[in-house]
Amino acid sequence: MKKIIILAAAISGSVVFAQEKKSDTVKAKVIEGITLTKQVFKKQSDRFVYDVAASPVAKGNTTFDLLKQTPLLSSTDDKTLKIAGKNNALIYINGRKTNMDAESLVQLLKSTPAENIQKIEVITVPGSEYQVESSDGIINIVMKKKMSDGLNGNMRMSNMQNKYNGSSASLSLNYRKDKLGISGNIFTGENIQAQSYVLKNGTNLISNESIGDINDPNKNLGGYLNFDYQLTDNSNLALTWNSWYNKSNDSTVDLLNTLRNYNTDGSLKSTEYNKSENRENAHYYNNSVNLNYELKTDSLGSKLNVNAAYLNYRRFQYSDNRTLLPGTSNDFSQLRQKIIQDIPQVINNFSGTVDYIQKFKNDFTVSVGGNFNKTKTDNDTKNYSYLYNKNGDLEGVKPDFNHFIYDESIYGVYLTFEKKFSDKLSGKVGARYEITKSLGTSDNPQNTEAPYQEIERNYNNFLPYLSFNYAINDKNNISYAFSSRMRRPSFWELNPVKNILTQDNYTQNNPFVKSSSTYNQELTYMLKSSYFLILNHSYFKDIITQVPLQREIIRDGVAYRQLAYIRTNFGDKQEMSAMLGMQKTFFKQYLTMNFNIGVQHNINNGTLNTDPTTGQVFDTYINKTKSTSMVIQTNNTIRLDKKKTWFLGVNYFYVDKQQIELGMLKNLMSLDLSIKKNWNDWTFALNVNDVLKTNIVEIEDYQSSGNYNYVRNDQYRRGMTFSITYNFGNQKVKKVRDIEGASDAIKSRTR
Questions:
Q1: What pLDDT sits at residue 68?
Q2: At 621, which helix (H) or strand (E)?
Q3: Is residue 136's pLDDT more than 90?
Q4: DSSP string across 287-305
Q5: Is residue 561 within 8 Å of 550, Cβ to Cβ?
Q6: What is the rounded distance in angstroms from the CA atom of residue 594 to the CA atom of residue 668?
Q7: What pTM does this model have?
């Protein structure tokens, strides 16, 4: 059910804290008789750096597991990564953005062993040179550098059990010979994503309740292939191909719906039952190719980087939604309504980027560049509504076709100046200027009033950036950063399609959604590379979100409450947070502890009563609530033997209740345990997640008008995973380079 239950994505994307912490181990490195100490976690200019090369956490884990245990990073849903107060985290490898869409990337991270990672850099407020949106931060994964020719790789197999059983396997290879480097990965997996829902809405006179399960079977096959050739000592040419395929047939939604009518004195007047049965087949393909040229222009590190890319995304979704009445035998066999939906989407994107970095001898760097994106999305939606009378007889068929085409062009340029004034003080200032031109055309022959519509959106944005870092002494460091960003709507959010959940509950996308703006400020203090304090303020303008709107409708002489989740711009929001953290090792490095505690204050300011797409008027929904919430998180790795072969992991997070766009999100917490055994080139690991079964989403909202809305979503996060990882080949092989694709900025918007 990729787009039917958008609530899950909205909920997980709204939990914006739960951070994790660091490891304070100090490693010794001998060079010609001189012993140097290396800090494992430290602040550098515009980023935090976590050195994990010798960490016991890395071996046998997946890259996703390692990221979840990295300082400042967290995941409350095991699907999305967050950076201290950031909704999303973009993944870079060796300073270059990964060339995959967001959903495929998560699967790849979960299948890739973490042994080859040298360090992880966390950029909470990215500079102007990065193509990021809204409050996104960056996670830069720096791979180990290995020196000789040859072939190496690793294999990983895992089996997961929560409500259903799932399995996955991956193979990664890395080959180098003289000037040629070839790297690749292939991953396959099969699982059933299960959820259960309790949905309630209404007033004191009418209430709707829907209870049931969602089962979404998934088969995945994907990977990448990269060819990198060193043309000269100073230039490289590379070709990268990424591919991902997902098949999800026979996804099911089964909900029992109860309608209750009450008298004004509160007594029950009547009760009515029906069932919603949704069956969906969906699959999507994502293929992209990127050509990269890099030229080093001097010995200081100045270089020119040019990319050209093509992306093709194709998704096909066919659903059958039925509303069933009890019938004469109370077996819910009588049809009341049937809606057949065919919702395909095709995206084609051509992209190009040019970046030039000029370094000077006096620690001064100038970065300048530009990017171009040309995207066309084609959405040819077909709906057929079959209407039945109370006796189950077909009364008619109502077709509803909408061919929506969206063309978008983005032009961007940036300029950044970075200066190291002394060993203590450094700073960066820059700006990005973006021009966006878009045109959406909707061809709907059933709409006699406006069978053809054009929606044009053109806007220019100036996005400044400023940061500085001051090392007071070798134990104290302070830094500040300010950035301005924008968020464009995802392509599926713009497609004006209605996704049916029950007869009176649906989600509605919106072609009129405009971009939103975000302004971030962050002040950081670090002590002894072990303790830190982060103060953050974010202001969001024209937030893109779902808004739950209700209204009363009359059907067959009976009053019902209709609930619609409308995708639109919904007012402004402020987030202020303070986070205090510690990362230390104890007992001669037998215990590595990461701990942090934080508080966040949200100020919401949004009002809506009309669906911008259909013009339908609902009861006014108001969210002008303030909330203050707390978060606690700790990750602990315990070494169980002197030989460093047995490890126990104990991880816990708690997120206090907070006000989000959909209402009051109740508290979440999770206790996760793991045990790991390293044996030569093999690693065996067992992970148990959400031991106490407390990571269940609940949202509740009461309006002054008397409307209420309640959501309870259990995604069965309690479960266990057993994995086996094997490393083989010449472990000194290195990649020539990791390449950033020109179409990377588009990938997350296909999700």
A1: 77
A2: strand 617-623
A3: no
A4: EEEEEEEEEE-STTS-EEE
A5: yes
A6: 19
A7: 0.82
